[in-house]
Design goal:
alpha/beta, six-stranded parallel beta sheet, four-stranded parallel beta sheet, binds D-glutamic acid
């Protein structure tokens, strides 16, 4: 689908509100590009689910986006990228995909202590993508990992500052600090929403890497190669869809990225096939 200015639509999806951290970066860099964002909140969190199941959800969401006329798809979810990116590229060879991979490369290149912490969900750590990123790019750096149990659910509830959220973060980060990390990689698109809390625990000397701007730049590159980039013109039409309750999503979008939106609710088994 192109809008009336012939600007192709980008589909962006996540299990929930996490992908809004990526969408925000896309809107900042290319505000004229029309977008459709899908939050699969009927199934959030993806992280503890079997990879095959997350792959099946991702395939159906891709079919939904293609029906809506999306040209490029951004898998704004590390868990779905780990579970499905390879499969999606094979299944939909004519569609360009941009996925998430934990930013181990820039972390390993810039660490002074040689110790890097990665915060992500179990699906991401289990996927081949993560293993291959560490193998190719760790470059001798020690990589520490934590799955931050329950953190995605806390962020989905908008509880960024609650004692439970801070406890999850402290349990993850304090042992890493004790082992000398100077860099934290955010390997889940929900986690940029607690960067202030992470910084408060980790202190000013620890660098926190949010991959969202790099992912937005990669989307721009792919759009540009195809002549699909909406460089100027009025702000694009932005559509928001959730498989969960729409009003709760709208409230969170306001809380997390300060946008006031209408949200369409869709259902698995009706609009989405599985
Ligand atoms: N935001 C997601 C990610 O980047 C998914 C988290 C989840 O649903 O567990 O991994």
């Amino acid at each position: 689908m192109k809008d009336n200015l012939q600007r192709p639509l980008i589909g962006v999806f996540d299990s929930g509100v996490g992908g809004l951290s990526v969408l925000r970066a896309i809107h900042t860099l290319i505000p004229a590009q029309p977008t459709i964002y899908l939050a699969d909140q009927a199934h959030v969190p993806y992280g503890p689910r079997p990879l095959k199941q997350v792959q099946a959800f991702s395939e159906e969401i891709t079919r939904y986006f293609l029906e809506k006329g999306a040209g490029l798809i951004v898998v704004a979810c590390n868990a779905a990228s780990a579970a499905a990116l390879h499969h999606l590229r094979e299944t939909f060879p004519d569609t360009p995909f941009v996925g998430m991979e934990p930013a181990v490369k820039p972390a390993a290149e810039s660490t002074h202590t040689g110790v890097v912490g990665v915060l992500a969900t179990p699906a991401t750590f289990q996927g081949e993508l993560y293993a291959s990123v560490v193998e190719r790019f760790a470059n001798g750096a020690r990589i520490l990992q934590d799955i931050c149990p329950g953190l995605v659910a806390q962020i989905e509830r908008g509880e960024l500052d609650s004692p439970d959220t801070l406890e999850i973060l402290e349990k993850a980060i304090l042992p890493m600090l004790a082992q000398g990390i100077d860099t934290i990689v955010l390997g889940c698109t929900h986690y940029p929403f607690v960067i202030p809390q992470i910084r408060a625990i980790a202190g000013p000397d620890v660098r926190v890497i949010d991959p969202a701007p790099a992912v937005a730049r990669q989307a721009i590159r792919l759009l540009g190669e195809r002549g699909w980039l909406a460089k100027d013109g009025p702000v694009g039409h932005h559509i928001y869809v959730t498989t969960g309750p729409g009003s709760a999503f709208a409230d969170l979008a306001w809380q997390l990225i300060g946008i006031s939106i209408q949200v369409e609710e869709i259902r698995w088994g009706r609009e989405l096939v599985i």
